Amino acid sequence: MTPLVLKLGGELLESATDRGAMADAIGRLAAERPLVVVHGGGRAIDVELARRAIAPRKVEGLRVTDADTLEVAVSVLAGSANTALVAACVARGVAAVGLTGVDAGTSPSTRSAAHRTAAGETVDLGFVGNPATVNAALVDALLAQRFVPVVASIGFDSDSEEPQLLNVNADVMACRLAAALRDSELVIAGTTPGVLDADGASVPLLDEEGIDAALALGTATAGMIAKLSACRQALVDGVASIRIIDGRALASGAALSQVPGTTLLAAAAARLESTS
Questions:
Q1: Topology of 4-275 in CATH?
Q2: Most buried one in 124, 152, 159, 238, CB count within 10 A?
Q3: Does the annotation count 129 as an active-site position?
Q4: pLDDT tier for residue 72 given thresholds of 50, 70 and 90
Q5: What is the pTM of this model?
Q6: Cα torsion 10, 135, 116, 210: sign
Q7: Is there a catalytic annotation at residue 7?
Q8: Active-site residue among 9, 10, 27, 129?
Q9: Could you say which DSSP state residue 196 is in?
Q10: Residue 27 pLDDT > 80, yes or no?
Q11: Is 10 a known active-site residue?
Q12: Of these residues, 9, 27, 40, 42, which one is catalytic?
């Protein structure tokens, strides 16, 4: 059966009530098909940075990660955020297993190159990882035993003398993991109903050219720019279908097929979809 990779934005997981509602949704999806969850935790990281009097810095939706910020990201993503979501799932009878991209070498990464902004500025992102590849063996093994892997987006640089932990954008982690799993589908859930046009309406369908046009339009938020860029690469890498949805509807009990959002398909598949 086709596995589903579900990426959850950290804004959907901020309170115990939020996590409980999302855990219920995870349980419903896991009952239907093999399910992998990848989660973010950006707001929780910002809260902990503020508590430690560390100023957060982002550029076009990407977090600039110095050594202090990396320590916070690891403690939140691989620690409190992951464990709290897994606990909410297990409390509802879901056989969830928490892991990161470090476990069993799932996500060996390289340090991201300096980011060139739309304005032409070059920014060193610090300890930010770009998954060089994804080894899905552990995830496949867990799925075969009907577990639900819940993956925190921490990777590692295996080329350094002492393996260096790296902060990986959760959208990128989900996209690379979906590409590594055979014939998977990817759903990215946040708090917006998909990709919005210039009038603020949700765009129902985009292919790679449509993604490029949406990025060129200039109406996408910084976070959406990073998301769409990762999704475009995932389509190139063979992910069959991607949906960007409003995860709040999913948490409220709506069936996945009924949740509003934008479907991203490779060009040939998009043409078939638009004529059907």
A1: Carbamate kinase (3.40.1160)
A2: 152
A3: no
A4: very high
A5: 0.92
A6: negative
A7: yes
A8: 10
A9: B
A10: yes
A11: yes
A12: 42
